[in-house]
C-alpha cells in the first residue's frame, strides 16, 4: 500500500489523486457482479468467522457488489454497505433477496462515520486497493 509519506524512487511524491481517479475509471468499466458471485463464499466465511449476530451494526468498507454485505444482512445485522464506485454497490442483489441494507457512496480513505458507530467493520477485497488505508471522520 502506498502512503502519502512514501517517496518514489525518483524522489517525488506520487500523484495519489490521479491514481485514485484512474482506479475509479477502471472499477466503473467492468461487470464485477459476475466475478463477485463466484466469491460469495468469502463474505459468508468472513461473517461466520466474526460470529456476527442479529442486531449488530456492521459496516462493509469498499463493498463492491456486496459479498460481505449480503452475508451480514442474511444474519439479520443492520448493514451499511459503502463503495466509492456507485455502480458497484450490490443494491439489486440485496433487493432480490429482500434484505434491508443501507447503501452509501463513500471513499474508504475518508469514511463519513464516527469511531464507534459500528459493532463490526468488514471488507473482503476492497480495502486492499486503497492508497492510504481506511480512515473514519474521527481519524482525519
Name the features:
single chain, alpha/beta, 4 strands, 13% strand, 140 residues
Would you tell me the overall average pLDDT?
Answer: 82
Instruction: Give the CATH H-level superfamily.
Output: Vaccinia Virus protein VP39
The CATH class is Alpha Beta
Low-confidence stretches: none
Global morphology: globular
**Strand order across the biggest sheet?**
3-2-1-4
Written as H for each helix and E for each strand, in order along the chain, the element string is HHHEHEHEE
- Secondary structure tally, helices: 5
DSSP summary, beta strand count: 4
Q: What radius of gyration results from the CA coordinates? A: 16 Å
User: How many structural units, i.e. domains?
Assistant: 1
Q: What's the CATH topology label?
A: Rossmann fold
The separation of the N and C termini measures 18 Å
Strand % is 5-15%
Protein structure class:
alpha/beta
CATH architectural designation: 3-Layer(aba) Sandwich
For the largest beta-sheet, the strand count, sense and barrel status come to:
4 strands, parallel
Q: What is the helix fraction of residues, given as a range?
A: 25-40%
